[in-house]
Amino acid sequence: MREDVRDDVTMRFLFVGDSMTIGSVGDWTWRYRMWRHLESALPGEFEIVGPRTGLYDPAADAPGPEAYADPAFPAAARRHLAGWGEGWLHMAPLIGGAVTETGADVLLVSLGLIDLGFYTDSGQTEENVRTFLAAARAANPRVRTVLLPVIPNVRAGNDAFFAAECARFNDLLAKTVADLDTAASPLLLATVPESYTLEADTYDGTHPGPTGEHKLAAAFADAMHQAWGLGAPYGAGPDSTAPRL
Q1: Rounded-to-integer distance, Cα 21 and Cα 157, Å
Q2: What is the pTM of this model?
Q3: Model confidence over 27-86: pLDDT tens digits?
Q4: Residues 24, 66: Cα–Cα separation, whole Å
Q5: CA 136 to chain centroid
């Protein structure tokens, strides 16, 4: 665990995800929305941790820049473990070291779409979920994890086999959470927002736009509040309709 972590911080949150979590140049990201929520729900009682801080740059097809829509997004709050094109397959070998290095207490995880789309079937992806959770718990036996199922996406709307794999993985993910949940290291399955639509909440059928970012942040925030009494219900801020740059 890092020696420089402040003593007054009680919860260290680590965002883990794929392209929908890292975001691309010009995005606010749902990580930003969650940070703003935590600022009001847990003032002075949390820290955002992680080994990365940048966004994805489509022009360069590479990570790195920090051109967030809000330049006032604090550097310390930009931390994450997310990557464009990275899924459970990629994060499972990294999570143990990240938890050890950052002292993460709560993992907010949104993964699966990229795995099913390019790397592994639903069963193999579920095996990688279990490997990920085992590594996280080995690094911190009391780590809490909130997992978001695969959310609606344009490919699932056009490819029946892929849609079936997404649905099967979500069923397997729910079973894994039920099987592996413990009092010492609780697991929580967030709920895909019922109102989430590709037309209103994404800018390309997959990646969240401003309203989608709010809905994803709300899925995590509301799950933690309802199940663990942590924080508060999510409330969209005044920037909820701000356009994507």
Answers
A1: 21
A2: 0.93
A3: 999 999 999 999 999 999 999 999 999 999 999 998 878 999 999 999 999 999 999 999
A4: 9
A5: 15
